[in-house]
Fold:
Amino acid sequence: MGSALSQKYIPPMAILIILILKHSALTTAASLDNRTAYEVLQDYNFPVGLLPEGVKGYDLNIITGEFSVYFDYTCSFEHNHFHLKYNPTVKGSISNGKIFGLNGVYEKRFLLWLEIDQIVRNGDDIVFSVGALSSAFPVTDFEMSPQCGGGGVGKLRAKPFASLYGGS
Structure:
C-alpha cells in the first residue's frame, strides 16, 4: 500500500517538455557539424572578419560556449598602426555579442604584444579589451576576413580593421 503512494508522479506535460528539449539539443549539435567557424560567429551576432581566413577546424560546447579555433600556423597582419596576431589555437567562451576568457589573440600596442581578453559587440561597434584598455571599431570594418599566407604573415584583402590612432 505505502509503495504506491511514495512513487513520484511526473505529469505528461513535463515529459513532453523534456523530450522537446532533448530533441532540440541533439538537432542543434548535429547542425553544428556542417557549419563553419565563420557561420557560428554570425550566429552569436559577430561579423566573419573577426577571424582571419584559414580556419582548419573548431570545437564548440553549445552548453557552456567554450570554444577552440585551429589554424595551421600563427597569423599576423597589419593595417595602418593596428597589428593583430592569432596563435595556431585560439580559445575562449562565446555568448551572444560577447567573447570572453580569450586566449591566443594579440594586439600590438606601443611595441608590445598584449593579449586581447574580451571582444564585445556594442551596437554597431566591436570593442577589443586588453586588460583595462579598450578600442572600439565599426562592425563594418570586419565584414571580410583578413587573409593570411606566405608563412603566416597576413595581408588584408579589404579593410577589416581600423587604426587605433583615428582615421581609417
In short: Residues 23-31, 150-168 have pLDDT under 50 and may be disordered. The CA atoms of residues 108 and 137 lie 16 Å apart. Residues 12-32 form the longest helix (21 residues). The helical segments are 2-6, 12-32, 37-43.
